[in-house]
Amino acid sequence: MEWVNETLVREFVFLGFSSLAGLQQLLFVVFLLVYMFTLGTNAIIISTIVLERALHTPMYFFLAGLSCSETCYTFVIVSKMLVDLLAQKKTISFLGCSIQMFSFLFLGCSHSFLLAAMGNDSYVAICNPLRYTVLMGHGMCVGLVAVACLCGFTIAEIITSLVFHLPFHSSNQLHHFFCDISPVLKVASHHTHFSQFVIIMLCALVLVIPLLLILVSYIHIISAILQFPSTLGRYKAFSTCASHLIIVIVHYGCASFIYLRPKSNYSSSQDALISVSYTILTPLFNPMIYSLRNKEFKSALQRVVGRTISLPRH
């Protein structure tokens, strides 16, 4: 092992894919293709929502915010991971590690609160449709996104400050492929029970509070849908909410497994595998689940493409 004795750690070494040395070039190609597809689909979603007036609704406003969040989230983690897959020495500076941790925490926490905002939007649309345009006006939507970002920024700032104010004198080897909380805490020389308690509580709050808000919204939504007289109406309402529910289950399932487990159950190999799913695979499927299977969105995309192709003729 590589030890840094009696001096402060100035850089960290990633060992996340060290056991797959013979497969790293193949992993690079696979992850690069997935990464490019994810960036491309999110760019299509954002540009279509911006260019098509029919999509200037609260649901698509939140979806555009979610796509921006996922694009930045994958960039922060996957771009560095791709470089490391081809590098001999997979290192990141102490400052770079702290910036990466802050960025992915900020984007991940904001993502959680954005999912809660989308749950609230579905609740108002189904349970109070006559007042929907009043209750979910542009100002309200911007305010909800701003609150989500503010909460994400505050939580990320506190956790990152607590983690990187700890002393790092011993090992600088992270058994992971990015600067996640648990791997970095594991190589700290020592940390107080207070800082560990605050970090766990903040992780729990950022998962539990939005999830409770979503659950309350869907309890009201389901009870309202069951009162619909038409079977077709019930089917359409459930299918509208299904995409959001799938993403909520995947997002909170992975995040809870990583951040809410007892420390005694920590497994670097399991964490790396789950982290691949929510940093690479979940952003890949989210655009397809939310938009590319949505008839309204596909129609809007066809109109945008049609207008773009016809522009040179004029």
From TrEMBL:
Domain G-protein coupled receptors family 1 profile: 41-290
GO molecular function: G protein-coupled receptor activity; olfactory receptor activity
InterPro entries reported for this sequence: GPCR_Rhodpsn, GPCR_Rhodpsn_7TM, Olfact_rcpt
Cell compartments where the protein resides: Cell membrane
Topology of the protein relative to the lipid bilayer: Multi-pass membrane protein
Keywords: Cell membrane, G-protein coupled receptor, Membrane, Olfaction, Receptor, Sensory transduction, Transducer, Transmembrane, Transmembrane helix
Record-linked Pfam families: 7tm_4 (PF13853)
Origin: domain of life: Eukaryota
Predominant cellular place of this UniProt entry's protein: membrane
TM spans (from-to): 59-79, 99-119, 140-164, 197-226, 238-260, 272-292
CDD domains xrefs: 7tmA_OR10A-like
Function: Putative odorant or sperm cell receptor.
Name used for this protein in its record: Olfactory receptor 10K2
Organism: Balaenoptera acutorostrata (Common minke whale)
Record gene name: LOC103000893
